[in-house]
Amino acid sequence: MDELMADGGKAPDLLSLSRDTLADLPEAVIRPSYSLDQLTPGIVHIGLGNFHRAHQAWYLHRLMQQGKALDWAIIGAGVRPADAAQRERLLAQDCLTTLIELDPSGKAAEVTGAMIDFLPVESDNAALIAQMADPAIRIVSLTVTEGGYFLDAATGGFDAAHPDMQHDAAYPQTPRTAFGAMIAALRLRRDAGHGPFTGQSCDNLQGNGKILRQTVASLARLSDPEFADWIDAHCSFPDAMVDCIVPATGPSEIALVQTFGISDAAPVTHENFRQWVIEDDFCAGRPPWEDVGVTMTDKVDVFEAMKIRILNGGHQIIADPAEIIGVETIATAMAHPLIRGFLHKVVTEEIAPHVAPVPGMTPQNYLSLIDRRFSNPEIKDTTRRVAFDGSSRHPGFLIPSIRDGLAKGTPVTGLALASALWARYCQGTREDGTPIAPNDPNWDDLQATARRARTEPNAWLEMRHIYGDLAQRHEFAASFSTWLDMIYDHGVEQTLRTYLEQ
């Protein structure tokens, strides 16, 4: 029976995505020109979500389309029980992915084949350790979210007291975490004389390579200081900046891929923009990333600062007020003049002054670029997704600009308003009275603190693991308190209007 499309028409006969059906895909769908049988593994990627498949795996696929990097295929892995469902979906379609580019001028589909396997998800990570110990694996890459690196939010140092870190230090052969598994595999490689691999973070953290090194080496040092020294001396952890807007997959994305004649249980939609800037520090070799547009440089930090401060920080600036007033997508938030104005004023006056230009791009031009990207109506990126895990994202993306502003005497009032909006968001209800479902790993604590802050605003800033000493910085704390009171007394839109009129 023909399936109905979302607009009520008939969907074409659907091909179930697999190696066997690649040749039968519609002509408009780009597919691998390389033989999947010729691929051999070189990379294990941990945390195989949509972003990885639209970004790192796509760049590798593009190299393979040129006949290059055929010995750098990806083996997927996960360390959370929920990853098992993703494994089942992808293995059922031979680890192929349909990428759908969403552009106002039209949509395009491409099937990628750079991934060739997905390891079993096990509590002791035995299969993952064994695969990473294979000398054919020369890079272990990760997308484990900004909050996944076991950092002390107040200091940025390693959180040695975390129960998972304590477990992996006590039981290094049966670790719970990706980092414990990396250490176990590196020990096997050293003992067998196979040498190290490169650890490559693909998460939105400034200095992500240094942070990954800190987590791996510090965890190893808890149980074996000598081996931690070996890791520090022999492994490489390049810094990288990654960028592509990739929404979550839901029923609409499943329906969209069917309009191309494909049945794909895990399609990925993405914008028509990608950027990857990598420090060229790979101890065991690497694919020729530069041949497909990756920027290899020893100055990743300036690219990171621009992207993390303006794009990722900008996402937090618009997502929280949009959620509170019931605006569901980022593009719709950008169509709201007060929210869009808020983004532009805060970035221009309070963030951009602390961001250096990069080759070919000033901070103000970058703001114009992300305005266009955020406003793309084809990208159904939800404000809820963007607002997720504010307890990691605000410290990583916005609070550094607050500290720079206070140190240099530039305004911080708009950034104080962004913090007040986050506090109001974590209170747990929208202005129309509908509940905001938990949206942070620390939601219960955040909600309790947000409700206390309704009458004691400084309670919010006294979360030292997030704000450090900012509760004692009178200029910022007073501005935060004023905005929070105004949000509750007069609503989000009037508060934004007041800020924009200043």
From TrEMBL:
What single Pfam family name could you report for this chain, choosing any that match?
Mannitol_dh_C
**Is Oxidoreductase there in the keyword field?**
yes
Question: Which positions fall inside the Mannitol dehydrogenase N-terminal domain?
Answer: 42-290
Task: Give yes or no: UniProt keyword Zinc-finger.
Answer: no
The name under which this protein is listed is Mannitol dehydrogenase family protein
**Where is the Mannitol dehydrogenase C-terminal domain positioned along the sequence?**
299-486
An example molecular function term from Gene Ontology annotations: oxidoreductase activity, acting on the CH-OH group of donors, NAD or NADP as acceptor
Q: Record's SUPFAM superfamilies?
A: 6-phosphogluconate dehydrogenase C-terminal domain-like (SSF48179), NAD(P)-binding Rossmann-fold domains (SSF51735)
Q: Supply the PANTHER family for this chain.
A: MANNITOL DEHYDROGENASE 2-RELATED (PTHR43362:SF1), MANNITOL DEHYDROGENASE DSF1-RELATED (PTHR43362)
Task: Report the superkingdom from the record.
Answer: Bacteria
The lineage, from the top, is: Bacteria, Pseudomonadati, Pseudomonadota, Alphaproteobacteria, Rhodobacterales
The alphabetical list of record keywords is: Oxidoreductase
